[in-house]
Protein 1
Amino acid sequence: MERRSIGSGALTVGAVGLGCMPMSGAYAPARRRREDSLRTVHTALDLGANLLDTADLYGPYTNELLLGRVLRERRQDAFVSAKAGLRADGRHVVADGRPGYLRRACDASLRRLRTDVIDLYQLHRVDPEVPVEESWGALAELVGAGKVRALGFCALGAGTGPGAGRRGDRSYGATLRHLERAQQVFPVSAVQAELSVWSPQAARHLLPWCTARGVGFLAAMPLGSGFLTGTLTPGEGFEAQDVRARHPLFTAYAMAANQVLVAGLRRVARRHGPGVTAAQAALAWVLAQGPQVVPVPGTGQACWAAENARAAEVLLTAEDLAELSGLPDPVGAWD
């Protein structure tokens, strides 16, 4: 698989990564199986999709424990991207950027992951009660201590997802100000934010900042939480604990109306051969946004991990990109 740089270029990863959150939460909890998840991670590593994106919040903690079982055997094959700065507090999730907490969180993640170093450690969210310089400085100390190789900034939630309007623009502005402040303390090696065919806002607001500074960009939810794969049926419904059950983009009406996006992806996919899927076309669009962009599609199934990894072989033409960029905004966005 093609390799792409994270940060200054000293660290490289496969062009497509693996988002590990679905193995421990968020989507279709009744379908999760530990052995399926382990098989998925091994499949991704076998195909060169070696960036494994996790967080202590996922589970919480169980996602890191699961990955630790694989890393115990295959640490040299993997690039570990972990996060800290959000913690479960009863039924709520709260930001915690206190330096002491971040140091303790890193030590705990290292134990669960069964490794002595995390390749990319991301600040999961900025704590409004703690200056970002203090949180980032604590993370920089972890690099100095040899526990972390590089630092990333997770900007998920910076905008408002698909169809983001002015509120999303203002949120991206706040993220850029945080990035500038963090950069004065210690280099930012990667920024993670949502980026997909139906949510392209980060390509306009965050990616130029990364490109100008040689910062890697991890594209979260590049398959639109599964919708852009074309495998979801409008009206079929979701499990009560599935986050999509409460999202306006996943109502039966919105899913039916947004089939035009899936149809566009399928048209593009057919031009590249009978075996190319809508999901691969969607990931190829993300890959085409820049040489430092690494899509991180999440899955807990080995077959989908293999399909996603092979998207790195799909090279879209200028005509393809123009057609996908011309697709309508999705119906049902938060705004």
Protein 2
Amino acid sequence: MRLNSTTIITDTHTHLYSEEFAEDRNEMIQRAINAGVSRFFIPAIDSATTQAMYNLEQDFPENIFLMIGLHPTHVKENFEEELNHVTKELARRKFYGIGEIGIDLYWDKTTLDIQKAAFKTQIQLAKHYKLPIVIHCRDAFDEVFEVLESEKSTDLFGIFHCFSGTYEQALQAISYNMKLGIGGVVTFKNGKIDQFLKQIDLCHIVLETDSPYLAPVPFRGKRNESSYIVNVVAKLAEIYGLSEMEISAATTQNSKDVFGI
């Protein structure tokens, strides 16, 4: 399904370098482009993913926009070495954001202190380069908000990736100059965010897939891909009472406001 020949949809968070796309990566990206998704923002995980991201950019230079960062689940004993890699790459070339960064207490609570340290360091790098941050938060809203509060300034802005919190947490995220990244979860029966999203002005929303994860209905449980973002567009159009073209245009403009392109 393609919305319109002039429609531009932006996927603000997609792991196109994932090994899950090894067999059909180019075809999968082309499916998305054919569906109107012409802008893909690529979050980093750690130094092991960097070269694969550069290869993607080389293959699709008009469509791929890279971030750099250390994912909280990859904050291990060598995190300072990983942060040095982020710092060196930032000094060497252009990126469009610092991400994905944040705190994840679902997988490992024992690394909370170093996760916080890595999060703060990367926020400070983002401020230095005047770049947005893209936040990963899982079972850690209080901890993430604590760090954001300590770093609050006009230079702090970005996206709360895969937002799945409450209405009150949405307002709190927005208060830190964050857009809400909305993806497949909004289509889930138990996703809950669809129940209050209309109360959030559309100017605070960007679209994402987080592919290959969190595929929307009717693909839930299968490999996600960027072309499936049209299902998220359709759900948001239903929630906001707008056309799919209006949702696509507004959210793409919001992504331009965040990433500067």
Protein 3
Amino acid sequence: MHEGSRSDAVLDKAEILAQALPYIRQFHGKTLVIKYGGNAMTDPALQQDFAEDVVLLKLVGMNPVVVHGGGPQIEAALKRLGKEGRFIQGMRVTDAETMEVVEWVLAGEVQQDIVGLINQAGGKAVGLTGRDGGLIRAKKLKMLDHKDPSVEHDVGQVGEIVAIDSSVVKALQDDAFIPVVSPIGFGVDNESYNINADVVASRLATELQAEKLLLLTNIPGVLDKAGQLLPTLTAAQIDALIEDGTISGGMLPKLAGAIDAAKAGVNAVHIVDGRVPHAMLLEILTDQAYGTMIRG
């Protein structure tokens, strides 16, 4: 590398750091809830990038809270046990035995992997489930049939959130820790419930009155009919895109939670392409769009 191009590269780096300053100032002391999933969660290089991003955000004065899923890992564990997964309307039927597997995969293996990666990158992560500090109170999810709402399907120990008590998360944040939350709730009889991680992230962001909710996915963001990225959207625009069928499938529950959070006071919800190295950092600290931002 000759002298000219080296100094250009240094100037580029300085420019990027200078560009981050107003964002660091704007979000200092603010809470960011991050739903961690997709490729970012299964590709070792992206896992390391994610952990470094979380630590950097904490060190510059923001308060990241991580909520994770673990569908592929649960699937792999059930296969090892020779247990066949059964789904109704896209929802995993969670009997008592499956729930046991869900708990040890999410609250054990997956959570502790994330905690370890963040600690290795220089942060102080602490793993929580919805049981810790009475964080997520839940009840059995009532699933009505898409075609005939008078029919209710029993999907077992799949839960919906009754209430969130975020005091344990706030206490950890104030103490320089990074909370890592597994989406498991508890019921009135101390039973466990498996809850959709996007829903937990959205509700937790609302409860904490977070500045931002970031949902890491395996797609560039919300796309229009022609497949072009829509960098910003309002709740009304999303309703129109659902109405005309542009948004469908797995994107629907993600966006339902995102809209609820945006309407309930979370300043911005970002659907971020987790396949791009350091996408989360670039989304928060630069002008560059690496996904779709939804405003309330």
Protein 4
Amino acid sequence: MVSTREARAGWLFVLPWVAGFLLLTAGPMLYSLYLSFTHYDLLKPPRFAGLENYREILLDGRAATALWNTVFYTVLHVPAQIVLALGLASLLRRAGRSAGLFRTVLFLPTMTPPVALAALFLLLLNGQNGAVNAVLGWFGFNGPQWTTDPAWIKPGLVLMSLWTVGSTAVLYLAALTRVPAERYEAARLDGASAWRQFWHVTLPGISGTVYFTLVVNTIASLQVFTEAYTMFFGARPSTPAEGDAALFYVIYLFQEAFGSLRMGYASALAWVLFLVIAVITVVQVRLSRGYVHYEDRS
């Protein structure tokens, strides 16, 4: 049993975090929930509007477009991130003594500020003289207009997002090193091919880490903002040809809040996104029960 003195000491240690959570997270969230039922433009007091903001979201074509763009980006980005990171982690595992150096080099791009990354890829993805299309040209391919063709804007942003795959790869490398070598030896003795070893030994052994990165990357992808905003709404004016191809949900929320000063409507948009993320996360948790394996489970 924990004594009263120990309990008080524990609460004393966590008090700064609790105070910060209540003042900087829970408080603003509850206030934004209240604002979502009001009309508020920062200049006048909030006026109660009931469910009007939420009804408007259902009829708002740009909100639907922004949500579709965000989901489309997520469906492309998350599997690509996981597959590439797993491949790189598998290569790092075979690097031997050089693994530490390669691990550091692989992780360094993660430290690039998002705004600098967006500015860099505006040059790399330039359809006329960008480095990506130049490399494709070496192999006889005509590269697309990554930053102006609506059909290629989101794939271009996914390509840019893979620049920071190193953080996920390092997590997978740590998980791979924890898979017991005896399992591979037993599989080889049973005549399992390399692919069957990967499917029946490696994946179950790192399924907890894969599940963690799936959830985290999904949540992050649904909130994509900085890079896309810098490339298409901040660094240069958008062109009519681009349309709303780069209009992600959080960008639209930002425009409504600080461009149109519709804080009530923006708050409603934020809570809709919160519910979408919550539903997707619950579905992932339910589906994981049959596929994710942990060492302490039978």
